[in-house]
Design goal:
Shape: rod-shaped
Strand content: under 5%
Number of strands: 0
Structural class: mainly alpha
Radius of gyration: 43 Å
C-alpha cells in the first residue's frame, strides 16, 4: 500500500510539473501574441497614416496638374497673341515698304 501511495504521489508531482511547464509555455505564447498584436496595430496605424498622406499628396498633385494645364492654356493664348501681333507688324512693314517702293 505504501508503494502504491508513493507511486501515486510521484505521478501527481510529475503531472504538477508538466502542468506548471505547460502554464509557463502558455504564458510565453500569450505574451508573444500580445507583442505581435501590438506590432500589427502599430503597422495598421502606420499604414493608415501612409494612406492618408498618400491621398493628400495625390490631391496636391491633382491641384498642381490643374494649375499646369491652366498655365499651359494661358501661355498658348499669349503665344498666339504675340505671334499675331508680330505677324501684324510684319504685314505693316511690308505694306510700308511696298508704298515706299511704289
Amino acid at each position: 500500500m505504501r508503494a502504491s501511495k508513493e507511486h501515486f504521489e510521484s505521478k501527481i508531482r510529475s503531472l504538477e510539473f508538466h502542468v506548471s511547464a505547460t502554464k509557463e509555455k502558455l504564458n510565453r505564447t500569450v505574451n508573444e501574441n500580445h507583442t505581435l498584436l501590438d506590432e500589427c496595430i502599430s503597422s495598421k496605424t502606420d499604414l493608415e497614416t501612409f494612406e492618408t498622406e498618400q491621398r493628400a499628396l495625390r490631391n496636391k498633385l491633382s491641384d498642381v496638374q490643374a494649375v499646369l494645364v491652366a498655365t499651359e492654356k494661358q501661355n498658348s493664348q499669349q503665344l498666339r497673341e504675340l505671334q499675331e501681333e508680330e505677324e501684324g507688324k510684319r504685314e505693316g512693314m511690308r505694306s510700308e515698304q511696298q508704298q515706299n517702293c511704289g
